[in-house]
Amino acid sequence: MGTKIAFARPDGKETTGYLAKPGRANAPGIVVIQEWWGLQDQIKGICDRFALAGYEALAPDLYSGVVVPYHDHEAAGREMNSLNFMDAADQIVRGAVQYLKRNGAKAGLTGFCLGGALTVIGSARIPELDAAVCFYGIPPEAAAKPADIKVPFQGHFANTDDWCTPAVVDAFEKGLRAAGKQDEIFRYDAQHGFVNEQRVSAHDRPSAELAWSRTLEFWKKHLG
What we know:
With 224 residues, the protein is α/β, with parallel strands linked by helices. The chain is built from 6 helices and 8 strands; from the N terminus they run βββαβααβαββαβα. It has a single domain (3-222), classed as Alpha/Beta hydrolase fold, catalytic domain (Rossmann fold).
């Protein structure tokens, strides 16, 4: 459904991503941020699903064409650790948000794993953003604290996650509430990566579909 496009960063440089368009004009936009595996077909499929739901969805290619096989955790970690998260938020992700807002519509940000952490950072740093949905990713507080988030925020987390652990999620939620943020936090009896249907060992269809329905309700409320 979608296609590869080039778009401008705020600094004037050019970057690329996968864009899926809906069947309506002037639709709200959603930036979709990849897992640490790169811009996999599964992430492109998320964009396609958002387009079918009536949103223009853009997934920036943070790894510049590198896609890591799902079994290669070492390579995925190497690519993720080489990414400058703050520059990615300020330039690539913000550029994608600006691209989607070119028609005057609202724009949201969502991401998974690595992309979830970037969603939190973007929620604190991207002034054009209108709302955000995070899936099982929280950055260090040095990058973005709960109190720094400036938009309505929804989070989806797994109860058996050994990276974004329940303790980390509890502390994050406590920080949101203490700061009086407009947030929704949901927990699922599933593993990290439960939305990704291409990873059979982690995918949990009931949890994924429930999270999807909650996400669409959130977008409808905050983006239109």
